[in-house]
Amino acid sequence: MKKAMKHLPTIIFLVFIYTMAILFFVLPKSDYSSSEKRYLEKFPKLTADTFFSGDFGADFETYLADHTAGRKFYVGLNSYYHLGLGNPVSNGIYHCKNGYLVNDPPVTDQFDRNVKIVSEFASLNNVETSFLLAPSTGYITNDILPNKHIHYNDDALFANAAAKFKDAGVNFIDVRDTFKNEYKAGKQIYYKTDHHWTTEGAFTAYKSLAATLGFKSFDKSDYTIKTENNFYGTTYSSSGFWCAEPDTIEMWSNKENHKINVTIKDRNKDNQKITINNDSVFFTERLKEDDKYPVFLDGNHPYTVINNESLKEKENDKKLLVIKDSFAHSLVPFLSDHYSQIIMIDLRYYRQNINEGTLSVADLIKTNNIDQVLFIYSLDNFATDAENLIHTIM
After folding, report:
1. Which residues pair with 254 in a beta bridge?
2. 286-314 per-residue burial string, b: 16 or more CB within 10 A, e: under 16
3. Terminal-to-terminal C-alpha distance of the chain
4. How does pLDDT run across 243-259, given as a tens digit for each residue?
């Protein structure tokens, strides 16, 4: 009996290894992970080049990790195991109080360069230019962060940007104090399981823009609000903290029921040009998917046009160009109540169109008689963008 017990750990280990191997070959392979909201690695192509270069081995290792039986369980087990040992961060996500999952501070190696690019953009184009920078979630919600965390450097970065933008004639909208006050008053400014601001946060930013852009903002009572529960966002998907409670998405519709239509130009998976039309800024069919955030303007696209026909009927024909990342998606619907047309470009995708002969940003402004330009970026994207913003001045 003692002899058998001596070999029990080895037997258990071998049974586990062979069972996992059998399950790997027997179980069907998924293309997509709903919990991580990403496509899984496909089986790599085996050629002489990939074999001898080592690329096949590296890709197969990723493929094996992506398709291991019980992957979600093991990812979560690893995250909570380290949390139990006193390490509150998993894959760059802090496990915080009150159910928040918060990104650690961004790398800022491109920040000064991008401030200079936006300043040069303003000097090259004869158009009123404004910039709205979304603070880090951890900076605004610092009271819920774990005791051990990297310092958020928002204050120094915002001060730097404010000084340089002022010299360049760029209107810099600083929402730090407003956001902190709203958060302290009990408003949920950022999602708990996603890196974006909530619709409440987007509305707060919209109110902050009013004086600079020259419109009278609506009040919260002017909107009807529809909600969608069970929203899990990007920080949840990246962290492995699967026990987190879901968020609620809110869609705010102006009671005046403006005549809005949205036109999106993009390419499909076969690289063919496509056009998407919708009679609302909300693409409610997206709420049926794992990633519900694209309910706002259908998510990331290179070129989106929002027309407000009711303002055109009133001969209020003001046009706005928004150069943005995904933080703009829940904010621009509020702005659409004040502009007859908003053109929204995402340089992460639009820059390819420029390279293929589509209008440059400068030509886009001239051709469409743009009255104002608004940059909307999260601090994370703006501070790390090494290849996209440069296309605003090319």
Report:
1. 223
2. bbeeebbbbbbbbbbbbbbebbbeebeee
3. 78
4. 999 999 999 999 876 78
Listed residue (124, 81, 6, 39) closest to 390, CA to CA: 124
Concatenating the DSSP letter of every residue in 211-267 gives HHHT--PPPGGGEEEEEEEEE--HHHHHH--TTPPPEEEEEEEETT---EEEEEEEE
Tell me the whole-structure pTM to 2 decimals. 0.85
What's the mean pLDDT in 346-371?
Answer: 89
As a whole number of angstroms, the distance between CA 189 and CA 294 comes to: 18
- Which amino acid does the sequence have at 156? A
Beta-strand ranges (E) seen in the chain are: 32-33, 38-39, 89-90, 93-95, 101-103, 128-134, 171-173, 223-231, 247-254, 260-267, 273-278, 303-308, 319-324, 341-345, 372-378
CB-based contact 371:125 (threshold 8 Å): no
Q: Give the chain's mean pLDDT.
A: 87
Beta bridge partners of 171: 130
